[in-house]
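Everyone, describe these structure tokens:
***
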Amino acid sequence: MLVAVIPSYNEEKNIRSVVEKVKKYTDKVIVVDDGSTDKTSVEAEKAGAIVYKNVKNLGKADAMKVGFIYAVNAGADTILTIDGDGQHNPDEIPKFIEKLNQGFDLVIGARRFATQQMPALRIFANSFSSFLSTLACKTKILDSQSGYRIIKKELVEKVKFESKRYEMETEMLIKAARCGFKIGFVEIDTIYRVEAKSKINQILDPLRFLLLVLKLSFWKCK
């Protein structure tokens, strides 16, 4: 069973469209409303999603952890993660499924970083973080920060995620690689929306990323 987990915060304008499109390719859609102050939950439910709402905003990582628990309990053997802000194209989901069926445990959407769509600083940050992740994982990482992923249940059951905010994507990569899970990539469209920038601290989040990579350099799979 393929279950989608969509962590969302104040996405009432986008979540309904995202859920409706994702439903075409998955068995269930779970939206984790991370303490939104708008009608994100209402719009998600109207679109047919199962909604779980955090009382307060805990950050993307904690929302994903909650989503993983509910997805596994719902019977998922495969979990899709996709952002609720419309920056990912749900019609590309079949590419992820096809790649997963080739023997991969974790498939990540690698974005085409087009300078006309994204600020040069953001392109550099993503490229640099992917380079550091490649060193930590000892395997080529094309896009370490992409939240568009498909994951086998065995991975989320084996790996304990401890990071906060946006570092979880990198933590998942490094720990998956060190536990022997096979990581693959598919090319996806770059849909850049300026309003999504406000959710990422351009100074603190890169620093958190660097500290995480240093910390996980000594991490061993149990």
